């Protein structure tokens, strides 16, 4: 199945028809992947500013043209035209799976669509995803571990505060993690640096980053799959005994964490972490 | 003197002629005030990205049109034209006073100009300043303590990390502090929120923010003057015994701290904290 999903449009159609319900990492190579957050319109301005003040975890790419629009997006990037984002689009069905929050609490996870929850008052935000620079890393010759193991990228809560915006006063970064060889870190930083709208360069790296981020256990992920060594053991087993170290990026699940921290009222929807909206434009179109 | 400096141009000329050599807080009411950082050109791209990734402490407003330009700026804000920034400008003289760094160390402070240090390889960056929303706060009826006491705003190092960019891997926020009554905090947040290019709403407030920011002693400032109560006592004396609490904003001295943390080689120049470049455009032109 995966091999036939070679475009963003094909990935969206497969998700719409419930034929693809897992991580989109590696899918539709070089097409832009994106996080989704859908809010009642009264929270839209505070969220827009949260993104503007925290562009590393929350790089805003686009939003609904008008409240209630699930098929039309306006671009926030001067280099991408509205019509090039996603031509045949239904935000209610085109992510593989979704999370649904009610009054700040997760009430449904990994559901196939949000057709019954969507209202004419909902505003969708499309946010860059670090899966969008994985193909550039592969081209540079480094291994993307979770992709090779057909697992979802590990994601963690941190204690790193976001810059507050309105109701969002106690939000913290969510990060994704990929292990790399120590000697490849500068290469990995240099390649991902250009991809500002898809989180850019890592925010922390090395085993000592765990304490700074407030991650207690590298094997205890909050989203995605626990990381494994190349031979399938828990990653902590190689602590101090391997050339591989964890490298952390800002993650577009941060808005879902922010929704819970702020206990937003009403129905909020988002993609199921790792299972992204795939766009018509390419990763390199956003540079 | 202050009363005659009613425009940005007048403030720059007074600084140029060494007739104004102190804080510009309250000067040239409603004219945009700005931080300055001048780097060897090889660091320009990493610094530009540091600003893009950390727009709250480092909101980039403009930069030298070309390396070596001290009289012409190009705007980074779509809402402000290059020619409206500052028409009669000499970045080497038009801040009241300057700091000079060599190989990451402060070697001159509060000097009147940087004429002898400036070279054709230097690139200047102009960054928003929170003194630019003080008049909006005054119009809303709240007191700006340091301004009433004719002192420079208190500024502090924090442990809050910036998102890394290239050589800038261990930078942390610098914050400015103004005390306000607890019941005015939401008003203060609302008024300053619009001023994204001059740091926007505060990043933290309340006495418990000190621990989160890593500020050990509210009276021990790293730049500016120590804060005082209305009747002139050290601020810590009213801890838990006053309606006033400290409110912290991202601060444009952050780049000077970043230069030291990254131990940048060569000659780097900046304004003397609190003594800003005053522009021709108004505070509300950047909204």
Automatic annotation (TrEMBL), chains A, B:
Gene3D superfamilies: PSTPO5379-like, PSTPO5379-like domain
Signal peptide (residue range): none
GO term, biological process aspect, one: glutamate metabolic process
Stated family: Belongs to the D-glutamate cyclase family.
Name by which UniProt lists this protein: Uncharacterized protein
InterPro entries per record: D-Glu_cyclase, Putative_hydro-lyase
Lyase is among the record's keywords: yes
Pfam families: D-Glu_cyclase
